[in-house]
Amino acid sequence: MKNFLDDDFLLNNKTSVQLYHEYAASAPIIDYHNHLPIEDICHDRNFDSITQVWMNDDHYKWRAMRANGIDESRITGSTGDKDKFHAWAATVPFTIGNPLYHWTHMELQRYFGIKKLLDQTTASDIYAQCNDFLQTREFSVRNLLRKMKVKILCTTDDPTDTLEYHKMVKEDGFEIKVYPTFRPDKVLQVENVEFFNSYIKKLEAAANANIVNLQNFYDALKSRHDFFHSLGCRSADHGLEHLYASDFTAAEIENIFKKLRESKSVTPEEAVKFKSAVLLQLAEWNYERGWVQQYHLGALRKNNSRGEAELGPDSGWDSIGDFLQAKHISVFLNKLNNKNKLAKTVLYNLNPADNAVFSTMAGNFNDGTIAGKIQWGAAWWFLDQKEGMEKHLATLANMGLVSKFIGMLTDSRSFLSFPRHEYFRRILCEFFGSRVHAGELPADIPWIGKVIQDICYNNVNNYFDWAKDN
């Protein structure tokens, strides 16, 4: 029987062990999608407690604690850091079978060297030990990133953001490259007219523009797109229920925008047309700039309206949705492809029932200009667990070219989340190693090892045009 979290964790034969330790473990990390606060990187923050760096923005943990019967005051409420940590420690044993159990103990080991299991009996010692480490400069934000061999990371940023902290990080010569990502979701929230017009005011201020008609709106958005490019941005990201690609005329979109600016509600059909027009325009700009466009599709958000009203978005009230995806994606990508303006595209599904749909859809629009131009993105959110990753890899291998996959990301708000790359790499090496061991793949370890290194690092490094940031 193997020991929990030993050197060969998740690796079940000699080939998998060799592939991980000789080919995957040493590869640097490119984290091309996360929600890390750039201000903390800029100021090289030291966190006051493990609670602050580990729990303050982690809705994965919050959901688990609520399911364990923990009162909200000890999750997101007014109680102190120590009490919240103890509440989490009391929950951890009951996360057994959930990736949180693995992640929690990997993070304690990889950052702090703590091999004890976290529970109520060990909470006080672990809390004190982690806090002692966090007070030292070796555990500042930048050094936490260095410890995990991060080479490049991409934050997620609203078009109205000044990107002042990105400028400062770039100018001070930090060796880890930190790039913004253009996330314009708020310009599509036309169902709430008051919110939309409030956001337009922010866009006007950011773009130094007066937005009175549709062309003004597009010009302002384009100016922000250009500004992001000047700071090294090479990626756009969208979080949507599904893609929008309805037919429309220019006059229709003009009239819809006019209604919105007059604070008049739009019909559901008008909302879909407007979203379709804006998404297609943004996608054309992405193509012209050589950006990668990422579409995170399928989350059903704000299910608990009372919880959302009390705590705001991204506080643990979202889940998997059962939206129709295939036709929307097909029409959207086809419209861009017909104009020869289809950028490199990454499609992420949240519903595991859509795995084969997304994997095969990507294959429809590869054109030979770049390997893996259209990607089925990494197992995301509720799917970034062992079984979800295994199914993702198996489906991609069966229906596409897993060898051209651009690999894992954290999608996290925590600076302690980077062992998720190790977690993925171990699963990846077991995926290939078990097939070599069974005689399903040739025992050409250097070749298989090269494929693994490509998935861990080389493919994504070649996919994005970060070298053109000057």
Name the poorly predicted regions: none
Strand fraction: 5-15%
CATH class of the largest domain: Alpha Beta
Indicate the CATH architecture of the largest domain: Alpha-Beta Barrel
Give structural notes.
There is one protein chain. This protein has 470 residues and is of the alpha/beta class. The protein folds into 2 domains: 46-139, uronate isomerase, domain 2, chain A (Orthogonal Bundle); 154-468, Metal-dependent hydrolases (TIM Barrel, Alpha-Beta Barrel). Helices cover 49% and strands 8% of the residues. The protein has 19 helices and 9 strands. The strands form 3 sheets. It has a 4-stranded parallel β-sheet, with helices on one face. A 3-stranded parallel β-sheet has the order 1-2-3. The chain is globular. The N and C termini lie far apart (53 Å).
What's the arrangement of secondary structure elements?
Blueprint: H1 14-24, E1 29-31, H2 38-42, H3 50-54, H4 59-67, H5 81-91, H6 99-112, H7 123-134, H8 141-147, E2 150-154, H9 164-171, E3 177-179, H10 193-207, H11 214-230, E4 235-240, H12 250-261, H13 268-289, E5 292-297, E6 299-300, H14 305-311, E7 319-320, H15 326-338, E8 344-349, H16 355-364, E9 374-376, H17 386-399, H18 419-437, H19 445-463
Parallel strand pairs: 1-2, 2-3, 4-5, 5-8, 8-9
Antiparallel strand pairs: 6-7
Helix pairs in contact: 1-18, 1-19, 10-11, 11-13, 12-13, 16-17, 17-18
